[in-house]
Design brief:
35% of the residues lie in helices and 26% in strands. By secondary structure, the chain is an alpha+beta fold. It folds into three domains: 5-76 and 181-366, Bira Bifunctional Protein, Domain 2 (BirA Bifunctional Protein, domain 2); 87-167, Herpes Virus-1; 396-488, Rossmann fold. It has a seven-stranded mixed sheet with strand order 3-9-10-16-13-12-11. Helix 2 (39-58) packs across helix 12 and helix 6 packs antiparallel against helix 7 (138-147). The structure holds glycyl-adenosine-5'-phosphate. Glycyl-adenosine-5'-phosphate is lined by residues 192, 194, 224, 226, 235-236, 239, 241, 243, 306-309, 353, 355-357, 359-360.
């Protein structure tokens, strides 16, 4: 799906119109790269979380889940390398001494061009910027700023310093007093959830009596002061990750890495999304802590992009935490090593990490599910927008629709609601013509609609309508709950 800009814009519009995603604090014109999930977005998001959590912690007997705090001791981020290496470029104006994020400065110029109705020039400027940022080409970026005659809003001059790195972590102060250098109380909003797992490795291993190989899973918020943040929920400043660290014996990392690559792709495919929408992308340039890494990429409307990372992180993190904390991060393995006939003994485990962005998964599911269908007949033009969500992820599973607001039909509908609503999410609607109600449920991705009409009063049957095919059939009302549950399992 190469660069389907119209579809992407349509998805963004649909998400807002139907209560999936709103810009954050919209009444104040929003906050860049921060979004709020509305009533149906929150349901979809929760269903994705449940699908991941269950597959990790329920279907794997050797994986447990934790919920660590967002704030962590600042040394955590020294040990993990984030304080020194998690950076983006910035530039100062020599006359005003004002500091700018390079992307903000160039984006402001692009906005100016747009206002002057120079759309092509604006797009070209942003595209060049993205390319230079992706290749860390700082002299190229400075040249772009100079050649585009971008000036400082305060001094009005183009007298720029060289570009330097800017740390992506958000920092804040802890407690009420600030030391003179401001450093003592400085804490960070975590840029990844993984470190909360690493620092709890021994707590979980000991209290859970976990034996290697075992995993620790976590879902939670992460924060990054992202430099390129223009792709809706693909790249946000506040987002959620679903991460799992799998602790293994050193030397077994290759086989576990391959196993988790396969397992994670299977998890995606089990949703029924076509395999052609996914591909692996092996990292050529490895991070300092990794001996192998790949992404599972998804074919978003703007092309194949990273959805999930699988990283063989060696013993880098635990070793580094051992060094900084001066607390041993070792595991005693009493299994017998066939090579020596003795227990493997003490070692710092190696780690395979699987890390998926919940919001990116939301966008992948939405991109797959969003379909505009032409239903025109020779007699009449017609169309619908339908979200063909996998049933287990759909925010609403069943819509209960009495045909009329009278004649005892709402009462029967309410009875069906009461019977089903503790098992799965149902939605009751009695306003508008039935066709209009069906279309609204299509737009929310509700897989099943049930209509209660006058015949129901005579023979206890209802019409069930299937979202994807729009086919309808008459079945006993007593079979509805089982039918939906069958699809959920
Ligand atoms: N612990 C490893 C780690 O954080 P990463 O590749 O930086 O690795 C993992 O992030 C996943 O988190 C990505 O594959 C992506 O799905 C998601 N992610 C990263 N930055 C994001 C952002 N700014 N907005 C939304 N999701 C993001």
């Amino acid at each position: 799906m190469a660069n389907d800009t119209n579809k992407f814009q349509a998805i963004i519009g649909h998400c807002k119109e139907y209560g999936f995603i709103f810009p954050s604090s919209e009444i104040y014109d929003g906050l860049s790269a921060v979004y709020d999930y509305g009533q149906w977005g929150a349901e979809l998001k929760k269903n994705i979380k449940d699908y991941w959590w269950k597959s990790m912690t329920q279907l794997h007997e050797n994986i447990v889940g934790i919920d660590a705090a967002i704030f962590m001791h600042p040394t955590t981020w020294k040990a993990s390398g984030h304080v020194d290496n998690f950076n983006d470029p910035m530039i100062d104006n020599k006359d005003s001494k004002k500091r700018y994020r390079v992307d903000h400065l160039i984006e402001a110029k692009a906005d100016e061009l747009l206002k002057a109705e120079k759309q092509e020039a604006a797009a070209a400027l942003l595209a060049t910027m993205d390319k230079l940022l992706a290749s860390d080409d700082f002299s190229g970026l400075k040249l772009l700023i100079e050649e585009s005659k971008i000036s400082c809003a305060v001094s009005g001059t183009c007298n720029w310093t060289d570009i330097r790195q800017f740390n992506l972590m958000f920092a804040t102060e802890f407690g009420s007093t600030v030391s003179s250098d401001g450093e003592d109380n400085k804490v960070y909003l975590r840029p990844e959830t993984a470190q909360g797992i690493f620092v709890n490795f021994l707590n979980v291993q000991k209290t859970g009596r976990m034996k290697i190989p075992f995993g620790i899973a976590q879902i939670g918020k992460a924060f990054r002061n992202e430099i390129v943040a223009r792709q809706f929920i693909f790249r946000m400043r506040e987002f959620e990750q679903m991460e799992m660290q799998f602790f293994i014996r050193p030397g077994t990392q290759k086989q576990w890495y391959e196993r988790w690559k396969e397992e994670r792709l299977k998890w995606h495919l089990a949703l029924g999304i076509p395999a052609s929408n996914y591909r692996y992308h092996d990292h050529v340039k490895l991070a300092h802590y990794a001996d192998a890494a790949c992404d599972i990429e998804y074919d978003f409307p703007f092309g194949f992009k990273e959805l999930e990372g699988i990283h063989s992180r060696t013993d880098f993190d635990l070793k580094s935490h051992q060094e900084f904390s001066k607390k041993k991060q070792q595991y005693f393995d009493n299994d017998i090593d066939p090579a020596t006939g003795k227990p493997y003994g003490n070692y710092i485990p190696y780690v395979i990490e699987t890390s998926i962005g919940l919001d990116r998964m939301f966008l992948a599911v939405m991109s797959h599910s969003y379909v505009e269908e032409d239903l025109s007949t020779p007699e009449k033009p017609d169309s619908r927008v339908v979200l063909k969500f996998p049933v287990k992820l759909a925010p609403i599973k069943l819509a209960v629709l009495p045909l009329l607001k009278k004649d005892g039909l709402p009462e029967i509908a309410r009875q069906l609601m009461d019977a089903c609503k503790s098992s799965f999410k149902c939605f009751y609607e009695e306003k508008d013509a039935i066709g209009k109600r069906y279309r609204r449920m299509d737009a929310l991705g509700t897989p099943f609609c049930v209509t209660i009409d006058h015949q129901t009063k005579e023979d206890n049957t209802v019409t069930i309508r299937y979202r994807d095919t729009m086919q309808q059939e008459r079945i006993p009302i007593s079979e509805i709950q089982t039918l939906v549950e069958k699809h959920l399992n």
